[in-house]
Amino acid sequence: MSFEIDMRAVSRVARRVSLAEVRLVDLNLRRTGQDDISKLSADVNRKCIPSKIDRGLIEVSCRYDFSAKASEKEVALISLAYNLKYEVDEAAGEPIEASDVEHFAYANGAYNSWPFARELFHSMTSRMGFPAFVLPVLSFAPPRPLAATAPPAAAATAPPPAAAKAAPAPRKRRSS
Fold this sequence. Notes:
The longest helix has 30 residues, at 98-127. The chain is 24% helix and 34% strand. The termini are far apart. It has a 4-stranded antiparallel β-sheet. By secondary structure, it is an alpha+beta fold. The relative contact order is 0.20.
């Protein structure tokens, strides 16, 4: 999805639903590489979209494509899909906006299926004879810059503003 997540839209849906089911609906595995691998890196792509919206029910489809690599060479492919069912509390009465469901599916679909995908990737890479791969923490934040920019040298050595006064020296206690 190429848009920025609207967390308010996610919240408008999330407060009215409960997760009813997470079902693995597709799984494809292929080992393509050598045996003597000590560490894996991976590219993981995910896409979570609403697949069905009915009164009282939202279904979300989440697809994960995992490409395991060793020394930049692809050694395994794992592709899987989960369907998630959310029951909608109709007590509020007003319908849920389709655009809100798009944001909800992208965020909560990933949030609710990520632990299942993590376990599956971990287990399957191990069963394929590779070091078990651990997915990183799920994050929707943009990547952090690698290094913070340092302030200009003049600003770092400038004296404090004239308005700032030094704190008074502490009083000495009298001995009795």
